[in-house]
Amino acid sequence: MGPAGEHKEHEDREAGRSGFAREIASAYAAKAGLHRHEDGRIDVLRSAGGIRGVVESVLPGLVFLVAFTALKDLVLSAVLSVAVAAVFVVARLAGRSTPTQAFAGIVGIGVSAALALFTGKAENFYVSGFVTNAAYILVLAISIAVRWPLIGVLFGFLRNEGLHWRGDAVRARQYRIGTWIMVAVLALRLVVEVPLYLMGDAGLVALGAMRLILGVPLYALGLWLAWLVTRVIASAPEDAARAAEGDARP
């Protein structure tokens, strides 16, 4: 095989790898549930699961906190929180809507309730959240280290950029910063909540309250900030028009 043939074979292999990476990234971005408005702005509420998704995320934990604070009955509080999550799953199935978020919610609540019941400590209801946050931080940090920042993967397809931003040093840097913002959001949760957890019963009410405040609201704020700092920076009027057109495409 001559040099021309070898070069073409190399290009074909690279194209194959790139196409596979695009397919994986596109599928991941689609499953992440991110959405945007017609004018190109990110739809933070819908990306967080919509009003229904927010309620499904918040209410089981709120029920556990209120029930245990009022009744001091760990078993009843755990059962009530799982029951609320189960109602959401049934409602999703009955309405023939996608039950994925509700199923994920009941699994998470089930694990949290089991930890609290098996240890006899109400504060352990929140331990699984610490583990999940730490895992997300690790994944996001690794994605930055290997130059595949996950915010770039997600937002790139939402903005119709695909993976082309990886060849642009400025855009790649923006997406690294956006990913660091989400790392900071997750890290802030641990910084605030872990000391409250270590206080035991004395910090339980504050821990539960912070879990609610630093949950969906903080995630939505972080998502919005990440979107803001990763906007296309146009260097000329025609670039600005091109960027606006790209952000407005459905």
Structure, briefly:
The chain has 250 residues and is mainly α.
Give the helix/strand layout:
Blueprint: H1 3-31, H2 44-47, H3 50-71, H4 74-94, H5 100-119, H6 127-145, H7 150-158, H8 169-198, H9 204-213, H10 216-229, H11 237-248
Features:
250 residues, mainly alpha
Describe the structure.
- This protein has one domain (32-248).
- The chain has eleven helices and no strands.
- 28% of the residues are buried.
- Mean pLDDT is 82; it is low at 236-240.
- The protein has 250 residues and is an all-alpha fold.
- It has helices spanning 3-31, 44-47, 50-71, 74-94, 100-119, 127-145, 150-158, 169-198, 204-213, 216-229, 237-248.
- The longest helix is centred in the last third of the chain and has 30 residues, at 169-198.
